[in-house]
Amino acid sequence: MNQPKPDEPVIEGRKLIIVSLLSGLVWLLLANLIIYYIQETKLAELFFAGYHFLIQLGIGLISGVIFGFAGLGLIRLKTFKRILNEYAIIRQVKQMDLSVKEIVYVSLVAGISEEILFRGAIQPVIGIWWTSLLFIGIHGYIRLKTIPHILYSLFTLALSTMLGALFMYIGLISAMASHFIYDVVVLYGIKKNLSHPDN
């Protein structure tokens, strides 16, 4: 059950870093185009909106830790462990032997690039709810087959909506910090608790 599908290659840690960097650059390019041509503003202006940098950073880190440990608690429950391999992202992470440095790097790239794209560029155009649905849909988290699938979808929707609210009411840096620390907590938790043959 923990084995990858035959047609699904496992990405090694270093390759994952390259893939995350390239995808991050694509997200940033796309975000810049949306911000410049649709919002008719500049990317740099997003970083000067909201509360002071340190307040944004603090609120983001605290909210990311809270959601991170909530997510870890959820995926460690037996009910949810049974469905985790159906999610490509979790399945891949369980197969990789990521170092702490690789986890931090991948989380940092995702936190910055995805929040700039989804919250900074897309959310002002289509709104918080559509952006949240798009975000979890692209990550493959919308599954409605069973009650655990629905609950996990709702959890990821709540996480995405929280990131959108942080962007709206606190600032972009807050959303990026929250996304970053959430990913660190969850990826490290998967590495430590779910990456063994008996899990």
UniProtKB/TrEMBL annotation:
InterPro entries: Rce1/LyrA-like_dom
Gene Ontology MF terms: metallopeptidase activity
Pfam family of the protein (one): Rce1-like
Every CAAX prenyl protease 2/Lysostaphin resistance protein A-like domain range: 102-185
Keywords: Hydrolase, Membrane, Metalloprotease, Protease, Transmembrane, Transmembrane helix
Domain of life: Bacteria
Protein name (record): CPBP family intramembrane metalloprotease
Taxonomic source organism: Rhodohalobacter sulfatireducens
